[in-house]
Amino acid sequence: MAWLIDQEIGAVIRSAEGAAEVLVAAHRQKLDALAAALLEEETLDSKRVDEILAAS
Asked: pTM of the entire structure?
């Protein structure tokens, strides 16, 4: 029974990982823009994040 539970947990994790990879790939440009702004500015408030995302 423990083996079945481990298998199911592994399947759930693999599925979530795949979904996360799809989301990151779909929004890569926005993530890169946010990362660049964070490196430059160190902190971002919600208004600044909205500006960056709107420009990307």
From this structure: 0.70
